[in-house]
Design a protein that fits this description.
alpha/beta; globular; single chain; 11 strands; four-stranded antiparallel β-sheet; seven-stranded mixed β-sheet
Length: 411
């Protein structure tokens, strides 16, 4: 049986040199193991999110190590500098053993020496003046945020981009109140606190072994997204169209606010993702949710006029960096085409809105070009819509992800 570090090494190598997505690679690797899941997960995500800092430290003690050696060094440095539970001896010795078991015996002396020198240097990450090195966020991304939101705002949320994000359980009002869900979870050994209509989980959560989850008493959704859907002022018996629904969280939240009355057309272009919505709606007993295959860019005359439309568009994802840490390393030039697609989806989605109805435009990114600028361009073309509310959330220790939403009303 492979050790936890061996599994983490293989996953990290796929991420760094095989362009694998961290969440998909981790989920795939953990599917076949019993113990050690938490350690593998934290080690993989930790190394990815702290890569800039770690690589700078390694470069001060070692020049251009081979790819597999570099991965092992990154793992070792992360354990030495960013974890409290791994003893120094284990972090160094297990890195040496990992090299041996992967055919890198020739480099064991190098790995041992480099890690010991780094450990003896007593490096204090918090003392770094360079924000990019301190928080392991690319300079160009920090500069973009500073220009958009101001240095003070950016400095306030930078510390919360590492270390994992809070998990929020949204209660299903067909079965439980928020208080009752918290009590259920606590009786199962899962700790949490009530946070603006949700339960913020403060301990480990294994959905596979959670009776409340299997019984449909809650679904998982980030707090920022939950609050955005709540701002849409959903009513019982509303007709709602969720144009980019998969995996269904926004539609499920809407169904809860509507007490499962009315109709919610939960749309996605991919059949396998529509199946995710179906299975989630069945587990939650939300008969008001109607999953359908649909292209958000093309108007579908078979869909009815809607009281409310949810338009959560594909985006660069800079608001969910702590959930998918490799997003921070995206080339900003590669996302320049997103606003055009987002505007096209919003234009199409707006055609479903009844006079007097509302549309929620949202993204999980912190980028004005994909957020406020898209709304401005939309309003310049659509004189029959006006903004009633706009909000940007920034990551925090007890809050949700970075998120933007705007509520537009057809006047």
């Amino acid at each position: 049986m492979k050790s936890s570090r061996q599994i983490a090494f293989e996953v990290l190598y796929k991420i760094f040199y095989g362009n694998a997505y961290s969440n998909i690679a981790v989920d795939s690797a953990l599917a076949g193991i019993g113990e050690g899941k938490a350690f593998v997960t934290r080690l993989v995500y930790g190394v990815v999110e702290r890569r800039i800092t770690i690589d700078k430290i390694i470069s001060d003690f070692c020049v251009s190590p081979k790819p597999k050696v570099l991965v092992i060094l990154r793992m070792g440095v992360y354990q030495l500098l960013f974890t409290d539970k791994v003893p120094t001896s284990a972090a160094i010795n297990e890195s040496v053993e990992l090299a041996k078991s992967n055919g890198l015996g020739y480099y064991t002396g190098l790995i041992n020496a480099v890690l010991r020198k780094i450990n003896n240097a007593e490096i204090d990450i918090n003392a770094f003046d360079d924000k990019s090195l301190k928080y392991s966020v690319p300079v160009n991304l920090i500069n973009m945020w500073n220009k958009a939101y101001g240095v003070e705002t950016v400095d306030a949320f930078l510390p919360y981009l590492n270390g994992g994000a809070p998990i929020f359980a949204v209660p299903n009002p067909l079965f439980v109140t928020t208080d009752e869900l918290l009590s259920e979870l606590q009786s199962s050994g899962i700790n949490g606190v009530i946070n603006r209509g949700t339960v913020m989980i403060t301990s480990s959560l294994d959905l596979n072994n959670c009776a409340s989850f299997h019984n449909g008493h809650f679904h998982i959704q980030d707090l920022s997204c939950y609050l955005a859907v709540g701002a849409l002022d959903l009513r019982e018996n509303d007709t709602v169209i969720d144009v980019c629904s998969a995996p269904g969280g926004k539609s499920f939240t809407a169904a809860g606010f509507m007490k499962n009355h009315g109709k919610i057309y939960a749309l996605d272009i991919h059949g396998h993702r529509v199946n995710l919505i179906k299975s989630g709606a069945q587990r939650l007993k939300f008969t008001s949710v109607i999953p359908m295959i649909n292209d958000a860019l093309i108007y579908n005359e078979n869909l009815p006029p809607a009281d409310k439309v949810i338009c959560d568009v594909p985006c660069s994802g800079f608001g969910i960096i702590r959930r998918k840490p490799e997003i921070r390393y995206k080339n900003l030039d590669e996302i320049k085409g997103l606003p055009k697609i987002q505007l096209e989806i919003l234009n199409t989605a707006s055609e479903y809105v009844k006079p007097g109805g509302k549309i929620l435009y949202s993204t999980c990114t912190l980028n004005i070009r994909e957020n406020e600028a898209v709304i401005e361009r939309f309003l310049s073309r659509k004189s029959d819509f006006s903004v009633t509310e706009t909000k940007t959330f920034f990551p925090s220790d007890s809050g949700g992800d970075g998120f933007f939403y705007s509520i537009l009303e057809r006047v």
